[in-house]
Amino acid sequence: MKRLRGFCLMVLFCAALCSWGCGADKPVQKSDMVMDTVVTLSASGAEAEAAVTEGMARLHELEKMVSPNLPASDVSRLEQMAGSGHWVVLHPEVYHLLAVAQDYAAKTNGAFDITAKPLVDLWGIGTDHSRVPAPAEIAKAQKLVGWQKLELNEKTHSARLLEAGMGVDAGGIAKGMAADEVRKIYRKHGIKNGLINLGGSSMYALGVNNEDKPWRIGLRHPRKDDAKEKIAVLPLSDEALSTSGDYERFFESGGQRYHHIIDPRLGRPAPSGLMSVTITAADKLEDAGMLTDLLTTTVFVLGPEQGTRFLRTLPAGISGALVDKRYQLWTTHDMAQRLEEVSKELQFWQESGELQ
Ligand code: AMP
Ligand code: MG
Description:
This protein is of the alpha+beta class. The chain has helices spanning 2-21, 48-66, 74-80, 92-107, 117-123, 135-143, 174-188, 288-302, 304-311, 335-338; strands at 28-34, 37-44, 88-89, 150-153, 158-161, 193-198, 202-206, 215-220, 230-236, 239-245, 250-253, 256-259, 262-263, 268-269, 274-282, 318-324, 328-331, 347-348.
């Protein structure tokens, strides 16, 4: 009996030593270029290596479905068949992305419109052929934009665009969807602590960082070239986060900044007076990553008044921080209390209209 107890103690001792020294819980981190951005996946836990490797492979798979540059991608096939009347069968993930996008297009009266592609292409912002188009060109492209002309068939997981020349641009939502998909893989591997980071604009923070503290996410200063310059810090745990900013892709002409977030109703970069929008969504919400991604784009188009009003109509667990061009910080829900290291340049906007 004594011998058996001694043996058991020995096994326990070895197990303890191993979990401390054999690397079982050692954080794993991998980076790669996916969806035109540097993706970094970190995780700790017994299955961290498998989660990160599988997560990265999944991201490459998803990229092939939504890339506008691959003729066989779902979005390219939709565009090729536009106006033909034929339905295009989609991967379930892409069908779901379109269904959520359509839901929010309806809720926002087209402020978020996944069919904005003809306008996005016309302006070419972020490419080497960006320019201010003539009003007639804008009007022509606008005729080919309209979420009501994208039809979905839930039974067959298929979709079609009603007019030739239409297209789908998933740039405002795909990274959030991808973050959700990696989050599912982390869940399958029992990962409690980790960070899924798609280029800093969409991420998912789980549990705590290597110092056993919530992850600390810097909100980028919208007018400093150095991406490390922050305007505030947000502790994040078990939440998705996305940011849209007018500094991400833009060109200047005639002293005006033309950025990559288009108001489809106007046919031009949204003149909302905002510089950046950050939104978080609790892990318990379905599609948390996708929601934050599409909502930052949407709120950027809606502007601060309408945008914050809209955010307040959404389920609990979603909150936002908006920075306008006067460096006023607009927050919803508990965001004001959560932000740390808030730059002195910022003034909290109060609903009374007074500045704090
Ligand atoms: P984000 O940086 O997440 O705000 O996404 C911006 C990208 O979404 C752009 O580069 C376009 O590809 C696309 N986009 C621009 N305007 C809209 C819009 N109003 N609705 C949906 N997608 C848009
Ligand atoms: Mg977005």
